Amino acid sequence: MCLAVPMKIVELKDMEAIVELGGVRRSVSLTLLTEDTLQVGDYVIVHAGFAIQKLDDDDARERLILLKEMLELA
Amino acid sequence: MKYLDEYRDPALAHRILDKIAEACGERSELAAIMEVCGTHTMSIARAGLRSLLGENLRLLSGPGCPVCVTPNDYLDRAIAIARQRDAIIATFGDMMKVPGSSSSLYQERGNGARIEMVYSPLDALKIAEQNPLNKVIFLGVGFETTAPTVAATLAKARADGVKNFFVLCGHKIVPPALFALVNDPELKLDGFLCPGHVSAIIGSRPYEFIARDYGLPCVIAGFEPLDILQGIWMILRQIIEKRGASVEIQYSRAVAAEGNPKAAAFMEKVFEPVDSIWRGLGKIPASGLAIKEEFGDWDAARVIQADVGETREPAGCICGMILRGVRLPMDCPLFRKTCTPENPVGACMVSSEGTCAAYYKYGNG
Ligand code: SF4
Question: Domain residue spans in chain A?
Fold first, then answer.
């Protein structure tokens, strides 16, 4: 039930966004996020019709690089 | 797909598995790690990680399946309300087939009750607006991931003056259950893989007592195979390096130490902590959420009378012990025989996050 998926924002209007994953679009509420930090193209975690968190792109990229480095070193 | 495919890379997964095997080899004892969250249980089973991890590492499933830990009296109450003529029950699909003491919502729907499956509590609110002569009762079940969505919906119902929308609140919160687990003498654990999406809301601080007071490493992990493997590796490194247990965030692309303060504020506005009964774990202090008096007009427990008969748990089902991590589905004599996803005896076989359902669908993992 805590299943939640990363979806891309393709449209923003007030407290709502149209998000997309693999060609499927749906409308989600942005009530639980600080909406002025969001832009089209951002990814959010979607759960039960709400975006519950914004995904941090830089962090994701750095972490994967870091993981690969850790695997080399450790 | 972004944020998914790159965390499913098999070559990288195998390299982490090698590291995990190496780390396990450095210890003589077996390490037992609990994956608290049902969504983790499902991902682990789907990717077959349990068998890949080898014999020195045991992954135990925990109580992180909201439907599974919801005791029967909640369901019996929902069913009693469903039988009322003007009631429409709106629920996440997972609750439909859970066997209550004498019936299930699915069965009640077959008998003519109006029960709608919804994807979002907002859909339930819409049903209420479209059916002003009915009472629409949303079954609020779920942890901190879900509770803010229900809180925001209740706030909207109040703001929009929707008077025929109610929530039967069965929400629970995770940290008090972990407190109960670390104090369970039957359970010997070496670390926790903490739930990613619960933590997206509450952050990492609520787990700190586990590391500090009980010396157990906690890693908040994402749900893709690489996330989970890296999370396990991080726990093992904490154990081996003996640098003192701490709470680490593997899933940092979605989890900040402070969580999502706006979502947490919604929860706080609408709900207050209450003692709550968990299937398998019993009554845990301040582990449930109740609707605050301010929102009492939308609280099904206060407003809607229901005649709930005697509550019984299903005979022979050991779901409770499985939720505590002290038994496996294979230990249940009913598993795969009388109890299957089509004909579930207990909640753990119904929910898409239930341990019995995961073992049934994907084998022993
Ligand atoms: S297999 Fe069925 S009866 Fe046995 S513990 Fe799991 S849900 Fe309960």
Answer: 5-73
pTM above 0.90, yes or no: yes
- B357 CA distance to ligand 1 centroid (A)? 9
- CB of A69 within 8 Å of a chain B CB? The answer is no
Q: Output the CA B277–ligand 1 centroid distance in Å.
A: 19
Pairing of the two strands A5-13 and A43-47 = antiparallel
* pLDDT tens digits for range B173-197: 999 999 999 999 888 899 999 999 9
CA distance A31 to chain B (A): 7
- Which fold would CATH assign to domain A5-73? SH3 type barrels. (2.30.30)
Say which residue the tokens 């025989």 belong to: B337
Measured between alpha carbons, how far is B269 from B287 in angstroms, rounded to an integer? 17
Phi, psi for residue B299 in degrees, rounded to 5: -95, 110
Tokens of B183: 């104090």
- Is the Cβ–Cβ distance between B361 and B317 less than 8 Å? no
Q: Does A35 touch chain B (CB under 8 A)?
A: no
User: Is the CB of A6 less than 8 angstroms away from the CB of B2?
Assistant: yes
